[in-house]
Amino acid sequence: xxxxxxxxxxxxxxxxxxxxxxxxxxxxxxxxxxxxxxxxxxxxxxxxxxxxxxxxxxxxxxxxxxxxxxxxxxxxxxxxxxxxxxxxxxxxxxxxxxxxxxxxxxxxxxxxxxxxxxxxxxxxxxxxxxxxxxxxxxxxxxxxxxxxxxxxxxxxxxxxxxxxxxxxxxxxxxxxxxxxxxxxxxxxxxxxxxxxxxxxxxxxxxxxxxxxxxxxxxxxxxxxxxxxxxxxxxxxxxxxxxxxxxxxxxxxxxxxxxxxxxxxxx
Length: 266
Known about the structure:
Layout: H1 44-55, H2 57-65, H3 72-82, E1 90-94, H4 100-110, E2 122-127, E3 137-141, H5 147-157, E4 161-166, H6 176-197, E5 198-209, H7 215-224, E6 225-231, E7 242-250, E8 263-264
Parallel strand pairs: 1-2, 1-4, 2-3, 4-5, 6-8
Antiparallel strand pairs: 5-7, 6-7
Helix pairs in contact: 3-4
C-alpha cells in the first residue's frame, strides 16, 4: 500500500472549520495558472504532470491550509456526505502516509466532532512506509496483507475501533486489469482487518477503482454492514477511475443480513 505525496504542518488550516469541524472541504483562495517550460531532460508526460500538479486547486489549497496532501479534501468531502467522524471514536487510518487523512481525523476529533466538546478518541495511522510523527496519533509501520500487522494494530488499539478507513493503493503497473485486481485485493484485506477489530455499528471506507471486479467485495460488505454506498469525492480527479466504498452500521461477527437491498448506488 502507498500513501500520498506532499508536505505540510499537521492540524492547521487558514480556511476555517467546515461542516465536519475538520476544515473547509472546498479549494480556498484565487488560483493563478502556472505554465511549466519544457526542460531538455524532462519527458513531455512529466511536464504535463507537473503543470497539472502546480495548477491543481486542491494541491494549492493543501499548501495554504497546512495539509500534507490534497487527499485530505477527499476525506473532508466523504465526511460531509456520510457523517463518518464523530467524537470519542477510535479510528484506524490505513495507507496513511504522508498523513492528510490523519490530519483531518485529528482535527475533527479534537474539535469534538459534530457534537462539540472535548474528544477522548484514538487515531492509529498505518502504512508500509514510515510517516512523520503527528501529535495525537499513533504511528505504525506494517503491511495489512500480513498477519503480524493485524496483531500489531490490535495491540496498539488496546480495544476495538469505531471506524476503519483505507486510502491504500498499489503502485500502478499501467495495465488496467492488473491494477484493478490489486487495489481490490487491498480493499478486501482492509475489510478482513475491519471485521476483526470493529465495534458493532462501526464504519468502513476503502478506495477502489472502477473496473467490474469488486462484486465479491460488495457482496461481503452488504452481508456485514447495514448500508453500503459508492462515492466519488469532488477532490478525486475527474479523469481518475478512483471511487470509495462507504459502509456503515457494522452488524458484528456472524450476523445475517436483515435486508438484501442495502446497497445504494451513488
